[in-house]
Amino acid sequence: MTAHDDDRIGRARVTDNPELLAYYDELAKLDAGALWTVANDIEPWYPQPKSVPMLWRYEQLRPLVHKALPLVTGDEAGRRVVMLVNPGRTEVSAAVGPLYTGLQIMGPGESMTAHRHTAAALRFVHEGTGAWTIVDGQKLKVGPRDFAITPSGTWHEHGNEADDVPVIWQDGLDIPLVNALDAGFYEIHPDLHQTPGKVINSSVLSYGGNLLPSGMEKWTRPYSPVFGYPWEPTYQALLDLAKAADGSPYDGVIMEYANPLTGGSAMATMGAHMQLLRPGQATLAHRHTGSVIYTAAKGRGVSVIAGRRFEWREGDIFCVPSWAWHEHANLDQSEDACLFSFNDFPVMRSLGFHREEAYTENGGHQPTS
Ligand code: 1HN
Questions:
Q1: Which pLDDT tens digit goes with each residue over 226-276?
Q2: How close is the Cα of 297 to the center of ligand 1, in Å?
Q3: Average pLDDT, whole number, for the chain?
Q4: pTM of the model
Q5: How many domains does the chain have?
Q6: What spacing in Å lies between the alpha carbon of 94 and ligand 1's midpoint?
């Protein structure tokens, strides 16, 4: 990229003069403009995200999330959520690129009404034992470190059936993407609530042990038939993969929450992973198109993102903007560390925008300031 320079042949390099400025004014009056005044900005040599690398500390956010509990009811607020806002993307409420995230708190015994929208959603549970969600009539119970999906257009409502402790879970949505495309619809359930099927966790129960259910109605929807991915089997899968393979030089032992019918991402616009970093493991740096929001699920470590160090521990949330160099390390020498993450990779791949590059200088690690 250093070989490139804005004033070389083939790039816009027109110098302002009074005649040109007058001409631009004339164009502006007709709601028109001269492309060469913006060409280099709207067609950069490589992605220039407005999003900046960020880390939100759970320890700092948690008391403020709790503070919202008596301030607004879930129903008044619709959902009681503290959202994480990237300083470069405040106008679209994005945490990074086209992705939104927030921490939702539900008090003991509380429940929310049902709605549906174009934006797809996912949940990653931080704390609390009583969380449930009903997605398209299926009731699912989720606990700490469980992952669940609310695909685009599905009715959903949730609550906390514990009688003692609140639930805090993290929502991830593709709202900024849907809004950038002007494609968003939103509806309240006509009865305010769904009538769930009798069997709890039915989708999880239907797809166990690497087997697919036979003799049932064919699943034809563009998202995973499995709505919940509990932590225990996820962690076991990582421990098992760690025995069988070295993993990725950039991500350690990493697995995707897959649609078991396609092997692809669980939803059409957002993918999600859980990765394990072995004790003391430091990955190599790489970069790719696509934005990622990480949540430290277990242990403690450090990620270097665009040359900046971000130390994390359980519950912390950080982001990697598109095309930013990043690498991760487990700072504990005896315990493994796990990172949950979600991304917009399915969009990048389906549009043919996926690109990836290894960091080759300096032994594969970024210098940090
Ligand atoms: C939503 O529907 C939920 O259902 C949470 O819990 C956060 C943020 C923006 C738009 C819809 C939920 C949301 C949301």
A1: 999 999 999 999 999 999 999 999 999 999 999 999 999 999 999 999 999
A2: 22
A3: 96
A4: 0.96
A5: 1
A6: 13
- d(Cα 341, Cα 25) in Å, to the nearest integer? 47
Instruction: List Cα–Cα distances, 284 to 182, 325, 364, 368, in angstroms.
Output: 38, 10, 5, 14
> What does 197-219 look like in DSSP terms, one character per residue?
-SSTTHHHHHT-TT----SSPPP
Q: Does residue 181 belong to any structural domain of this protein?
A: yes
Residue 258: give the domain boundaries: 54-364
In sequence order, which residues have a C-beta less than 8 Å from that of residue 181 and are 6 or more positions away?
none
pLDDT at 7 over 80: no
C-alpha–C-alpha distance, residues 39 and 7, integer Å? 12
Give, using CA atoms, the residue closest to atom 14 of ligand 1: 79
345: in domain = yes
Give the strands of the sheet with 131-135, arranged side by side: 138-142, 131-135, 156-160, 115-117, 186-188
Span 272-312, pLDDT tens digits: 999 999 999 999 999 999 999 999 999 999 999 999 999 99
CA dist 165 and 161 (Å) reads: 9
126-184 pLDDT, tens digit each: 999 999 999 999 999 999 999 999 999 999 999 999 999 999 999 999 999 999 999 99
Both tokens assigned to 180: 């950038």
14 within some domain: no
Give the Å distance between the CA of 148 and the centre of ligand 1. 14
Residue nearest to atom 3 of ligand 1 (CA): 79
C-alpha 81 – ligand 1 centre gap (Å): 8
The CA 303 to ligand 1 mean position distance, Å, reads 28
Pocket of ligand 1 (CB under 6 A): 79, 81, 102, 104, 117, 119, 121, 156, 171, 173, 175
Decide if 149 is inside a domain.
yes
Place of tokens 């685009």: 152
Residue 179 maps to which CATH number?
A: 2.60.120.10
User: Could you tell me the distance, in angstroms and rounded to a whole number, from the CA of residue 79 to the centre of ligand 1?
Assistant: 6
Pocket test for ligand 1, best of 149, 152, 173, 179 (most atoms within 8 A of CB): 173
Residue nearest to atom 7 of ligand 1 (CA): 171
For residue 52, the one-letter residue type is V
